[in-house]
Amino acid sequence: MKYYFSLVILLLTVHTNASCQDKVTDSLSRVTKTGKPAEKVKAWNALANAVVYDNPDQAKQYARQAIQLALHENDRAGLSDAYTRIGIAFDVSGLYDSSIYYYERSLAICNQIDNLKGRGSALNNLGLIYWNLGDYDKALAHFFDALKDFESIGNDQYTANALNNIGLVYDDINKHDEAIIFHHKARAYYEKLNDHYLRGAVYNNLGNSYFSLNRFDSAEYYYLRSIGMQQEANDDYGLSIAYSGYATLLDTLGKTALALEYDKKSLALKNKLNEVSGQAILLINMAGIYRKLHAPAEELDCLNRAKEIAEKNNLKKELMNAYLKLSGFYEKSDVGLSLNYFKKYNAYKDSVFNETSNRQITELSTKYETGKKELKLKEKDLLIARKNMMLLIIAASLLLLIILGFFLYKRNQFRQEQKLQREILKQQELATRAILSAEENERRRIAAELHDGIGQMMSAARMNLSVFEQELPFNGEAQKKSFDNVVNLVDMSCREIRSVSHQMMPNALLKKGLADAIREFTDRIDRRILVVDLHTEGLENRLEPNTESVMYRVVQECVNNVIKHAGATHLDISLIQDQDGLSVTIEDNGKGFDHQEEGEKDGIGITNIRSRVQFLKGTVEFDSAPGRGTLVAIHVPHQA
Questions:
Q1: At residue 599, does pLDDT exceed 80?
Q2: Beta bridge partners of 533
């Protein structure tokens, strides 16, 4: 597994050797004690920036001092800067939720004060978080937006950082040729700036991209250049990534022992920095090397440590890889445990690696290029506008009046349409209620007629036949058998009438409520064909009669669909009543279906389910895919 070098945007960048950094730190510390409030805020932020990678906890303390003072002085620019600093510190520590919180606070302030530099930084840093979390759509969107801001203000370093990070996303979705293009664009900026740390970062990423394309000579060239640059910059964070990238290449080239030594060097730096994501990745890499060296105890120790770190810090990609490696480790010694880890791996794989489509990526790239063209056009328009200012003011005033009149007209028209739409919806709802109410009443009437009318008549006929059986002499066994067949037919008719009447309006629904009615219905299903597990909670009190009748029909329809179409062997039904309303889930292990494909041609059954739930002002969702069963989730709020 390769370790990519992402670049967080800092609003103030300081790269010095240890002795110079001590002097800078001492100077900044004096400013925090003797300077003016605005100077103190800048000094606290600069201190946080100076130590953020080597000591993120100390950086958080400095940033909090800046936040406290900026809030007191209403220094919004300094406050935005401080939120970015503490966000970076949480990011380096792998605490992504906290990092997102502070980056978004910084972004909100930058939008308020129209700070393009700060806004671009916040967008870029948010993009890095979403990239780490596997949300590639959001990552690309944030990076391209940040790139437009940085290009518009002409900041070469930040432009290069955004270009580099876009390349990282393309690497992650296996578009390595595109990634190399963006990394080389970033490299040209960094070499112009002659910054060892940033050059080392992009060299490492180029090494990764060339490695993915099996161009190993180019990969080794850039990895070694990255290590050299990070050593000159005296940066532990960057050096840990450079060591890891080179170790991956060495392992691929068969230099296993040397690869392990570089991974150990990298892990020591990650532990020093408390960089949990990097620790998990390196431990998984080292486990693979120990596997090649036939050292199972060391391999298992690395995998378990990686799993614990990933679980504790919600690192989805790392946890997914740890599960896969553990499944392979136990494949021969413990098949059950191996299968359990493989199931966990598949679950995380489905949630993390829904790859970004080519269409979406193209749209984002097009959006970026279009934005650049629009910016140039706006600059030309501005030159023309300066020459025709008075004419533009008059034209704008007239246009404003026209727009205002049109807006008032459209607003009035919209209100009328809304009023009409509300009336239509009201009438539709009344019609639906009337139809469903009439349907339930008709079911009750037919069920009563079957049970009390035809059912009683059939029962009386059965009794009379029993009397005749005692009184009539039979001419032989054949006649007796024919009479018995008639009696059996009458018995079967009685049972059929009773069954139909109960299905149309179960006694349990009328007397005991929804839970008992559904349990009575599912108990009739042959468990050799379909095993049904029913869970109910909070249904001790009866629901509103319409709700019980409608939900009984909905569950009945869902179960019938499973029996007819799903080919399932197991069905879970859950009914939970709480303060928010009634929640119902129906999940089977059948063959499933492509719901996106079927959505536009729903059958009568699904249409009936939707209309009944909508009648109760509820919601219904179908989650299914071929080969993995179907989940129906229904929520009905409390009826007023």
A1: no
A2: 572
Q: Which amino acid is at 447?
A: A
DSSP label of 567: -
Mean pLDDT of 140-149: 93
Q: State the pLDDT at residue 511.
A: 67
Q: How many residues does the chain have?
A: 640
Tell me the sheet residues that pair with 532: 571
DSSP 61-91: HHHHHHHHHHHHHT-HHHHHHHHHHHHHHHH
Q: Does 174 reside within a domain?
A: no
Q: How many domains does the chain have?
A: 3
Considering 300, 328, 355, which residue would you say is the last residue of a domain?
355
Task: Determine contact, residues 433/615, Cβ cutoff 8 Å.
Answer: yes
- What single-letter DSSP state applies at residue 636? E
Residue 444 pLDDT level (bands cut at 50, 70, 90): low
CB-based contact 181:163 (threshold 8 Å): no
- Residue 472: the pLDDT is 72
Question: What does each C-alpha distance from 153 to 82, 136, 336, 605 come to in angstroms?
Answer: 21, 26, 59, 59
Q: Check residue 356 and give its pLDDT.
A: 37
Rg of the chain on CA atoms, in Å: 35
> Which residues, other chains included, contact 70 with Cβ-Cβ below 8 Å and sequence gap of 6+?
41, 76, 78, 79, 82
**C-alpha separations of 437 from 432, 444, 593, 639 in Å:** 8, 11, 32, 16
∠ CA 170-175-180, rounded to 5°: 75
Cα–Cα distance, 631 to 573 (Å, whole number):
10
Residue 547 or residue 109, greater confidence:
109
What local confidence, expressed as pLDDT, does residue 10 receive? 46
Residue 407 maps to a domain: no
Task: Kindly state whether residue 558 falls inside one of the protein's structural domains.
Answer: yes
C-alpha–C-alpha distance, residues 461 and 492, integer Å: 13
Distance CA 213, CA 219 (A): 9
Please provide the average confidence, as pLDDT, over all residues in the chain.
81
Residue range 430-447: mean pLDDT, rounded:
62
User: Quick check: 112 and 122 in contact, CB under 8 A?
Assistant: no
In angstroms, rounded to a whole number, what is the distance separating the alpha carbons of residues 590 and 548? 27
